[in-house]
Write a structure and sequence with these properties.
Blueprint lengths: L1 H27 L2 E5 L6 E4 L4 E6 L4 E6 L1 H5 L1 E6 L2 E6 L17 E6 L4 E6 L2 E19 L2 E17 L2 E17 L2 E18 L2 E16 L2 E5 L3 E7 L3 E4 L2
Parallel strand pairs: 2-6, 2-8, 3-7, 3-9, 8-9, 9-10, 10-11, 11-12, 12-13, 13-14, 13-15, 14-16
Antiparallel strand pairs: 1-4, 4-7, 5-6
């Protein structure tokens, strides 16, 4: 019995050691680069990667991934917008391979006024960005997670993408075309305007007024105690959060 227990313990030790070695090797294979860039207040993500944004006193971009992927990755600023994209868009399908490690991009900026995601990329703001206005847009199956404190927030989703909101604002407008979803229970706004075309869904937290227009089977769920003005064409619905 003791011999069996010792063999089992030894086997578990070997497996644990192998897993630790594999994890270390996988991490060691990732390349990291600090990219030189100019000032920006907007971000445009146009390839499948994970972007983390933090608030800081300077503008910086750090990328992490396989060397061959980073070689094809462009990070440049044009007209105040940080573009994160593939060098050769014609070879989009061949970008990366099944055994490629996910590309991660770490961004620091003092201010942020607009974010757009095209494709299946993901962008997450780790800090709360304040300002007069913020514009968010997702086209495709990607996602944006944003924490913000602004007077005016505009969100647009085309496709099956998702926008997650936290924070507060005075006025919020959301437009959803397709099957996308906006998760906004954690974002408190005075007034909200929602337009849905298709089967999309919107969760909103409005204090004063909520106006919604739905064409199709879209759904609006709201919290707070706003006055509600809704127009529905199709099987869509506007309901208070259950």
């Amino acid at each position: 019995m003791k011999r069996h227990s010792l063999l089992t313990a030894l086997l578990l030790l070997i497996v644990a050691s192998a897993l630790a070695s594999f994890t270390f090797s996988a991490t060691a294979l990732l390349d990291q680069e600090d990219r030189s860039i100019g000032a920006f207040t907007m971000i445009g993500l146009a390839f499948p990667a994970h972007v983390e944004v933090r608030k800081g006193s300077t503008h910086s971009v750090k990328v992490e991934g396989d060397a061959k992927d980073l070689k094809e990755l462009i990070t440049e600023v044009k007209d105040g917008k940080l573009l994160i994209k593939r060098k050769d868009s014609d070879n989009w399908i061949s970008w990366g391979s099944n055994d490629s490690k996910p590309v991660r991009v770490y961004v620091t900026t003092p201010t942020l006024e607009a974010v757009s995601v095209s494709g299946s990329g993901k962008l997450v703001a780790q800090d709360t960005f304040k300002g007069a206005s913020m514009s968010l847009a997702v086209s495709g199956s990607g996602s944006i997670t944003m924490s913000t404190d602004v007077d005016k927030l505009t969100s647009k989703i085309s496709g099956s993408g998702t926008i997650h909101l936290k924070g507060e604002g005075k006025s919020t407008s959301a437009s959803i075309s397709g099957s996308g979803s906006l998760k906004g229970y954690d974002f408190e706004t005075e007034t909200a305007s929602v337009s849905i075309s298709g089967s999309g869904s919107c969760e909103i937290n409005a204090k004063a007024t909520l106006k919604s227009i739905i064409s199709g089977s879209g759904r609006v769920y709201y919290s707070g105690s706003p006055s509600v003005d809704s127009r529905v064409s199709g099987s869509g619905s506007v309901k208070r959060r259950g």
